[in-house]
Amino acid sequence: MKYRIVYNKKECIGAAECEALSPDFWKIAxxxxxxxxxxxxxxxxxxxxxxxxxxxFKKQQSVAGxxxxxxxxxxxxx
Length: 78
Ligand code: SF4
Hints:
The chain is an alpha+beta fold. It has a single domain (about 1-75), classed as 2-Layer Sandwich (Alpha-Beta Plaits), CATH 3.30.70.20. The chain is built from 2 helices and 6 strands; from the N terminus they run E-H-E-E-E-E-H-E. The chain has a 4-stranded antiparallel beta sheet, with helices on one face. It has a two-stranded antiparallel sheet with strand order 2-3. The mean pLDDT is about 95. It binds iron/sulfur cluster (SF4). Iron/sulfur cluster binds near residues 12, 13, 17 and 67.
């Protein structure tokens, strides 16, 4: 099973919970917003997307749940 993180950077308020919980995936950039490392921007939605495996699924779900602006989603890839 494959999963995907979908990150709406426009809504990020720089609270940094993502980086604190998962520094391998998330980093606060100099503009104060989080970067999802190695993510690719979807040209249609503007969201940043990154495929992850089962091993990262629960961890990234907890990251999404801790983001105060709700701008991180983790979804199943078809
Ligand atoms: S937890 Fe959410 S709002 Fe905070 S820096 Fe990360 S993505 Fe942005």
